[in-house]
């Protein structure tokens, strides 16, 4: 009777030892896999849990990079064109990445170069197939019996950080007319401060990273890791150029560059005490020539007209002491002959060409026919107008501006449809200014901070959310 309990206790003890050994081996294997830093391996793959505020947490898993399907690959390419082939993110992880970066896009959209660099940073962090080369998981947490990432070291070169900051430091958020970094970088003055703000682990129910990110420029020795150093775009880049307000250092916006180019191409001519520019002198000469030609032609035409009229005036007979003899004072017997000559001259003047004569005869006959058949002409005119108005049956007022500017089969329309279906609708930011009405008695405006106005703002916000 005593052997049975002893054997049972021995079996239980052996089972516990096996469980401990299995757990230790599994933990050791998992740690080795998680810390494997080689090309084509991940350190975070898939989502294994969420915080109490709903922010998802990545799995601390050192699995190899996975080849995505065509749809996921297209989605990743639309947001992260530098990521090709295998990836270290699932569709759920990519959707989380997309939703997070969309919060920053309205602040950086004014400068495509800055936005591209900013997106590349988080694309490499989330989906790069060589994630393990520049990311090291430093702490994990147990959530729902799964190991989730709680802190990482992200190795990024100073060149990338400097290029990212330089492309974004002057970008303005147009709605507030302030620096975009005041909203997405806590007013950082260099890339170290910006990285420190990005890597801060956000408290519950506040925006930010769900796990701590420590940005480091150099990797540990003999670790086999390489700092992330994706190429950055300058805001002065022509292909991804920014406006002058977002990139004052751009060559097209620099007054120094403009003045230097003007001095190099400057041309002037000295005329006495004057030194006009070549272009100004050429325009002045051209103006004088055109005015001279215009007035010369007018003077020539006027002189020719006067000489012609002078030949038609009565002439003076010097034999009669300067008395004028006009054709109109000739004898009566000469009048019939004068009329014949005048009629022959007038018939010669109004003689038309073949085309003009044909058109004159045609429209004369057409006018006579229209005048003799008014009822038929009006009926045909009304019938033709009514026939052309049948197109109004398919008339439709287009209220969507994008269809007025681009065709349905154009490249821009295809890209917008892809963006709306795979990412999210693109909304234009509008600014709404509220003010109180001045008092008609003293002309002063009452305070806008009242309970009624605050309730009104909440009502407006709810209506806007319904539209979205």
Automatic annotation (TrEMBL):
Q: Which residues form the Niemann-Pick C1 N-terminal domain?
A: 40-269
| BP GO annotations | sterol transport
InterPro entries xrefs: NPC1_N (IPR032190)
The residues that cross the membrane are: 281-300, 374-393
**Pfam families listed in its UniProt record:** NPC1_N
Q: What highest taxon heads this organism's lineage?
A: Eukaryota
Q: Does the keyword Membrane apply?
A: yes
A GO cellular component annotated for this chain's UniProt record is: membrane
Q: Which GO terms describe its molecular function?
A: sterol binding
Q: Which PANTHER family does its entry note? A: NPC INTRACELLULAR CHOLESTEROL TRANSPORTER 1 (PTHR45727)
What is the protein's given name?
Answer: Niemann-Pick disease type C1-2
What is the source species? Hibiscus trionum (Flower of an hour)
